[in-house]
Write a structure and sequence with these properties.
single chain; mainly beta; Beta-clip-like; 5-stranded antiparallel β-sheet; 4-stranded mixed β-sheet; 1 helix; 5% helix; 38% strand
């Protein structure tokens, strides 16, 4: 399920991103998408490809598995003070995106790649 008011469009200095074509209220579920879970062995191969920037760590087994999220999920860009949050349902192999504050029409939707909307821990492309 992807709300029809979400659009993929060019994002300033980030390639593509997901944007709201209408206002969205706080705590709105905007997307529920299936994922493809990859084994630790598959992860080693994927990390050598362009897909590396689009995978999510998956499961509770020491971050060995990853998933490729379908829908728009892998196109949400990162922000340390994100306006959306994501939740993983390991049993159903689904990810859900929900707004954490009201979103303006035309605003880009961001998630924090650290899995918490306001976690300031440097991520791999910001680490120095």
């Amino acid at each position: 399920m992807i709300l029809p008011i979400l659009v993929v469009a060019p994002s300033d200095k980030r390639g593509r991103g997901v944007f709201a074509s209408e206002k969205i209220a706080k705590n709105t579920i905007i997307e529920i998408s299936p994922v493809l879970v990859l084994t630790a062995k598959d992860r080693k191969h994927v990390e050598k490809t362009r897909l590396f920037d689009y995978i999510f760590e998956w499961g509770t087994e020491g971050k060995k598995k990853v998933c490729i999220a379908l829908g728009y999920l892998s196109l949400y860009n990162h922000a340390y003070n994100a306006n959306c949050d994501y939740e993983m349902d390991f049993d159903a192999e689904l990810m859900t995106i929900k707004t954490v504050r009201a979103i303006k029409k035309g605003e880009e939707l961001f998630i924090n790649y650290n899995a918490v909307p306001d976690d300031a821990t440097p991520i791999w492309f910001d680490a120095k």
